[in-house]
């Protein structure tokens, strides 16, 4: 299948292209007249609902544009802190903009659980069938901001599968196999590789 990925992030496109390379499917960014379309995201409903909503909107757009014979990929992710029930989750980007990583750290007072996880949902649909996968990366929130690599919550997130450094302290690209997104995309690649395809 020719898969069009709904994202404004070129990095995600190239990472996913590599992960799906041996599945026989090609991945490119969904562009309409050279522009990545923006869709409504019902962040209050969670990452699964955001992914589903983007999928429906993208499929409608393709139909309107008369683009046929392709599949659509959507992805949504967020960080979930054990101390605050399912928060910030789908609102991770918004919360980071509002209070910053310092704000998150100051909310985690002494004695509060510091466990956290990144979650990602990834889906592909050809308009008839939909394939869906999830990825989770468990870890904990550091006591301070450490490192300047990555993006978002990386400088305060210490993955359990790592060596005690925050993702922000990892060298670029080194951690891709253990991230929530890589796990979701690997599972999706497995589903797309299955003989029923
Ligand atoms: P999106 O799925 O790319 O829209 O990500 C939503 C938000 O979740 C990002 O803006 C970050 O705040 C946070 N986030 C998701 N994945 C990661 C990650 O791998 N590292 C750091 N922050 C992330």
Map the helices and strands.
Layout (H helix, E strand, L loop, with lengths): L1 E4 L4 H10 L6 E4 L17 H19 L5 E11 L5 E3 L2 H16 L7 E11 L4 E12 L15 E3 L20 H14 L4
Parallel strand pairs: 1-2, 1-3
Antiparallel strand pairs: 3-4, 3-5, 5-6, 6-7
The chain binds inosinic acid.
The site of inosinic acid has 14 residues, from strand 3 and helix 3.
Features of this protein?
197 residues, 30% helix, binds inosinic acid
Describe the protein in words.
With 197 residues, the chain is an alpha/beta fold. It has one domain: Alpha-Beta Complex (Maf protein). 30% of the residues lie in helices and 24% in strands. A hairpin with a 4-residue loop joins β5 and β6. It is globular. The N and C termini lie close together (9 Å). 32% of the residues are buried. The model has no long low-confidence stretch (mean pLDDT 93). Inosinic acid (IMP) binds next to β3 and α3. Inosinic acid binds next to β3 and α3.
How would you summarize what this structure contains?
By secondary structure, the chain is an alpha/beta fold.
């Amino acid at each position: 299948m020719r898969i069009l990925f709904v994202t404004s992030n070129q990095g995600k496109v190239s990472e996913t292209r590599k992960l799906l390379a041996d599945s026989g499917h090609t991945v490119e960014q969904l562009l309409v007249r050279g522009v990545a379309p923006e869709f409504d995201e019902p962040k209050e409903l969670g990452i699964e609902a955001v992914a589903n909503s983007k999928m429906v909107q993208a499929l409608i757009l393709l139909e309107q544009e008369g683009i046929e014979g392709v599949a659509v990929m959507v992805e949504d992710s967020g960080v979930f802190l054990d101390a605050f029930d399912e928060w910030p989750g789908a609102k991770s980007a918004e919360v980071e903009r509002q209070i910053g990583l310092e704000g998150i750290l100051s909310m985690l007072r002494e004695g509060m659980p510091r466990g956290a996880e990144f979650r990602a949902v990834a889906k592909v649909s050809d308009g008839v069938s939909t394939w869906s996968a999830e990825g989770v990366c468990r870890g904990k929130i550091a006591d301070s901001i450490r490192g300047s690599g990555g993006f978002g919550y990386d400088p305060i997130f210490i993955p359990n599968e790592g060596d005690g450094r925050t993702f922000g302290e990892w060298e670029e690209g080194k951690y891709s196999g253990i991230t929530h997104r890589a796990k979701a995309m690997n599972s999706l690649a497995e589903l797309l590789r299955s003989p029923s395809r």
